[in-house]
Amino acid sequence: MDNTYLQARIDATKALITAAEDLLLVLMLEDTPTNRSYTLNTGQSIVTVTKKDADKLSALIDSLYNRLATLDARLNGGGRQAVCAF
């Protein structure tokens, strides 16, 4: 994968994280009926959530953060090591 592609995927994943977190905030803070549903298209799947299954949305957010970390490691290199000079 080239750097341009990886950066585009990182940017898209960040946008998805923001949308998912905003949706979770709406579900948790607003006086939303439990049967009202919201849909979020992640590009790989379409997730529909209601207030009662906000835990599913939280799991999606965690998954997106993991994806972001993986993409970042591919772009910037992973496993950085600390060097101690005596």
Taking all residues together, what is the mean pLDDT? 82
Question: What fraction of residues sit in β-strands?
Answer: 5-15%
> Helix coverage percent of residues?
55-70%
Q: Widest sheet: strand order?
A: 1-2
Q: Could you give the distance between the termini? A: 39 Å
Rg (C-alpha, Å): 17 Å
User: How many structural domains in the coordinates?
Assistant: 1
Oligomer: single chain
Which term fits the overall shape? elongated
Largest sheet: 2 strands, antiparallel
Low-confidence stretches: none
CATH topology grouping: Helix Hairpins
Structural class: mainly alpha
Count of helix runs: 2
What order do the helices and strands follow?
Answer: HEEH
Describe what you observe in this structure.
There is one protein chain. With 86 residues, this protein is mostly helical. It has a single domain, classed as Helix Hairpins (Orthogonal Bundle), CATH 1.10.287.370. The protein is built from two helices and two strands; from the N terminus they run αββα. The protein has helices at 3-29, 54-76; strands at residues 37-41, 46-50. A two-stranded antiparallel ribbon has the order 1-2. It is elongated. It starts with a helix and ends in a 10-residue tail after the last helix.
